[in-house]
Design brief:
The structure holds two protein chains of two kinds.
Chain A (H helix, E strand, L loop, with lengths): L15 H40 L4 H11 L4 H25 L6 H39 L2 H7 L4 H38 L5 H11 L2 H27 L4 H38 L5
Chain B lengths: L20 E12 L2 E12 L3 E5 L6 H8 L7 E6 L2 E2 L5 H8 L2 E4 L11 H12 L4 H14 L16 H13 L5 E5 L7 H18 L2 E5 L3 H7 L2 E5 L12 E5 L1 H6 L3 H8 L5 H11 L1
Parallel strand pairs in B: 3-8, 3-9, 6-7, 7-8
Antiparallel strand pairs in B: 1-2, 1-4, 4-5, 9-10
C-alpha cells in the first residue's frame, strides 16, 4: 500500500520564491513517488488475483451472485445506453451524409462505430460507474467494518473470496454486455434511419455488410475483455485501500470510477493501435 | 504525560508462571507510520487462562489482539502461539493457526450479504469438508448455545439488535471449537442486561470449552466478572520513553486495590486531571 506523503507538511514549508520553487518540485516528486507506488501495488494486487484464479476457482455460491450483480442487473441500463447511442449516431451523421447523397451508407458508419469504438468504450464507461463504484463501495465498507479482518481470521483469503469472483464476473460479463450494447446500438440506429429518415432498409444493410467485418466485432469484444479486467482490478483495489469512515468509502467509489475511466481510455488508444497493426500483418492487402 | 506515581514496573499475577505460556508476546512494538502504538510489550498467557486487557480508548488494545492472530504484524518483537512464531509462518500455516482461534469483533463484523445461518456456517464451509446437514446441525447448536431462537437463522444481520449481533458473532467464533477466543470490546454499546448476558456467555464458554480467552475491554464489570488476570495498557503518548506500557498486571481483585493513580482512576471511572491534560494537549497540538 502506498505510504509516502503526497506533499510536504506545512510546518516544513520554506519561505520566499526559492523556497516555493523547491517545495513545488518536492510536491511533484512526492506525488510521482506515490503514483509509482500505487502502480506497483496495483500490479501486485492483479498478480495475486490471477494466481488465485489459476490455483483455485471460487465456490459457486460466491460466483453466482457476482455474475448476477455484474451481468444481469446491468442488462437494462446497457441495452438502453446502446440503443440511444445508435440513434444519436444516426441523428448526428444523417445531415452530413445527405449532403453527399450517402444516406444509405449511414448503416456502415453506425455499425462500424458501434462495433469498434462506441459499443465497447461507452458500455465500459457505464459499467465502471454502475459496477465499479458498487464493488469499491462494498469492499470498502467491508474493510472499514472489519468484515475483511473477519474473513481473514476465519481462514478465508480476501483476494480469493472477494476479488476473484468479481474479477471473473467482469472478465466474462462485460464482453457479453458489450455485445448487447453493440446489438442494441445497431438496432437503434437502423430503426431511426429507416423509420424517421426513410432510408431504404435493403441498401442500409447491404452497405453495412460491405464495410463491417467479423474482425470489427472481434475488435470491440477483445477490447472489452481488457476493460472488464481493468474495472474489476481498479475497483477492488480501491475498496481494499479504502480510508476509514463514510468519507473514505465515498472517495474509494469515486476514485474507482475515475481511475477506471482514465485507464479504459488509455487502453482503448493502445489496443486500437495494436489491433490495427495485427490486422495489417494478417491482411496486408486490405487498406 | 505520565502519572505522578513513581510505580512504573508492572505487578505480575501470581498464578501465571506455573504453566508454560501458550501465547507469548516478546518485546512487541507496533508503529503505524511514524506513530508508535505499542512499545516493548512482553506477556505470557498460559492455556485456559482468561485475561482481560483494559485501558482507555486508543491505547492499542485492539492492535495487540490483531497482532496475536496475525491480522497485523509487529514492527519489532514477535508473537509465539503454541511454540510457533507467527511472523515466520507461511500463508498456509498461518491459515491453519488462525483456524484454532475464534474472534468476536467489536461490532461483530457479520457479513451483511449473508443470513445469520450462512454467517455462522462460514468458517466450517471455508475450513472443512463437512456435509451440509452436519453444518446445519452445528450452526443450530451454536445459535442455541448463545441463547438465540432458531428463527434468527434466516435473518440478515441488519435485522438484528446490537446484542443479538454480538451473540451471533460469538456463535460464529465458537463454531470451529477454537482453542483461543479473542473478544474485542464484547459489551461496548450494549445495555447493562445484555452486557451481563454476554459476560455470562463468555464465562459459560470458558467452562464448557476450556478455552484460552483474551478479552479486550474498558468495561470494568466485564473484566471483574470474566477474567482470571487483568493487564492494563497505557497510551504511549502519555508515557516517558523509559516507562513500561503495561502499567498493571495482576488479578481482578488486585486491580481494584491498585495504588497506581492511573489504574485506580481508570477502574473507578474518574476523570481526575484528564480534562485539564486534554486541554493542554489540544493547546500544544
Amino acid at each position: 500500500m502506498a505510504t509516502a506523503s503526497t506533499n510536504i507538511s506545512t510546518e516544513y514549508r520554506r519561505r520566499g520564491l526559492g523556497g516555493a520553487v523547491y517545495d513545488s518540485v518536492a510536491d511533484v516528486g512526492a506525488v510521482t513517488i506515490r503514483w509509482v507506488e500505487t502502480l506497483g501495488d496495483m500490479s501486485l494486487f492483479m498478480w495475486r488475483t490471477i494466481s488465485w484464479l489459476i490455483t483455485r476457482l471460487p465456490r459457486r455460491d460466491t460466483l453466482v451472485p457476482a455474475f448476477y450483480n455484474i451481468g444481469v442487473l446491468s442488462l437494462p441500463v446497457i441495452a438502453l445506453t446502446g440503443t440511444f447511442i445508435g440513434m444519436v449516431l444516426a441523428v448526428q451523421s444523417y445531415t452530413q451524409f445527405k449532403q453527399f447523397g450517402f444516406e444509405t451508407r449511414l448503416g456502415a458508419l453506425i455499425n462500424l462505430s458501434m462495433c469498434r469504438e462506441l459499443g465497447p468504450v461507452l458500455a465500459a464507461t457505464m459499467l465502471a460507474g454502475r459496477v465499479g463504484s458498487a464493488i469499491a463501495a462494498e469492499i470498502g465498507t467491508m474493510r472499514v467494518t472489519e468484515q475483511v479482518d473477519a474473513l481473514i481470521s476465519m481462514g478465508a483469503n480476501p483476494i480469493h473470496y472477494l476479488v476473484v469472483p468479481r474479477f471473473l464476473g467482469c472478465l466474462l460479463m462485460i464482453p457479453s454486455l458489450t455485445v448487447m450494447a453493440i446489438f442494441m446500438g445497431v438496432v437503434g440506429g437502423w430503426l431511426y434511419s429507416v423509420e424517421v429518415f426513410g432510408i431504404d432498409s435493403y441498401h442500409y444493410w447491404h452497405n453495412s455488410q460491405q464495410f463491417v467485418e467479423n474482425w470489427d466485432l472481434f475488435y470491440g469484444i477483445f477490447k472489452s475483455v481488457f476493460f472488464g479486467a481493468t474495472i474489476a482490478i481498479v475497483s477492488c483495489y480501491r475498496g481494499f485501500n479504502c480510508a476509514p469512515g463514510a468519507e473514505g468509502v465515498g472517495r474509494a467509489a469515486t476514485a474507482a470510477f475515475v481511475l477506471s475511466f482514465v485507464i479504459i481510455l488509455m487502453l482503448d488508444f493502445f489496443l486500437s493501435i495494436g489491433l490495427d497493426s495485427v490486422h495489417h500483418m494478417l491482411w496486408p492487402e486490405v487498406k | 504525560m505520565s502519572s505522578d506515581n513513581p510505580i512504573s514496573k508492572p505487578r505480575r499475577a501470581k498464578p501465571t508462571p506455573v504453566e508454560p505460556a501458550f501465547i507469548e508476546l516478546s518485546e512487541l512494538t507496533v508503529n503505524f507510520g511514524r506513530q508508535p502504538v505499542l512499545r516493548d510489550i512482553s506477556m505470557a498467557i498460559p492455556r485456559r487462562q482468561t485475561i482481560a486487557i483494559i485501558g482507555e480508548s486508543g491505547c492499542g488494545k485492539t492492535v495487540l489482539l490483531k497482532n496475536i492472530i496475525g491480522l497485523l504484524f509487529p514492527s519489532s518483537g514477535h508473537v509465539i502461539v503454541d511454540g510457533q512464531r507467527i511472523d515466520e509462518l507461511n500463508d498456509k500455516e498461518l491459515t491453519t493457526l488462525r483456524s484454532r482461534f475464534g474472534y468476536l469483533f467489536q461490532n461483530a463484523a457479520l457479513f451483511d450479504s449473508m443470513t445469520v445461518a450462512d454467517n455462522v456456517a462460514f468458517p466450517l464451509k471455508e475450513n472443512s469438508r463437512m456435509r451440509a446437514e452436519k453444518i446445519e446441525q452445528i450452526v443450530s447448536d451454536r445459535i442455541k448455545q448463545v441463547g438465540l431462537p432458531a428463527s434468527v437463522l434466516g435473518k440478515r444481520p441488519a435485522q438484528l439488535s446490537g446484542g443479538m449481533r454480538k451473540r451471533v458473532g460469538l456463535a460464529r467464533a465458537l463454531v470451529m471449537s477454537p482453542e483461543v477466543l479473542l473478544y474485542d470490546e464484547p459489551t461496548t454499546g450494549l445495555d447493562p442486561i445484555v452486557s451481563d448476558v454476554i459476560n455470562e456467555l463468555i464465562m459459560r464458554t470458558r467452562e464448557q470449552n476450556a478455552v484460552t480467552s483474551i478479552v479486550v475491554t474498558h468495561d470494568m464489570k466485564t473484566a471483574q466478572k470474566v477474567a482470571d488476570r487483568v493487564v492494563m495498557l497505557y497510551p504511549l503518548s502519555r508515557l516517558r520513553p523509559d516507562e513500561s506500557q503495561i502499567i498493571f498486571d495482576g488479578t481482578p481483585m488486585e486491580v481494584m486495590e491498585s495504588d497506581d493513580k492511573r489504574v485506580s482512576q481508570f477502574v473507578r471511572g474518574e476523570a481526575g486531571e484528564r480534562l485539564l491534560e486534554m486541554r493542554e494537549e489540544a493547546i500544544s497540538y
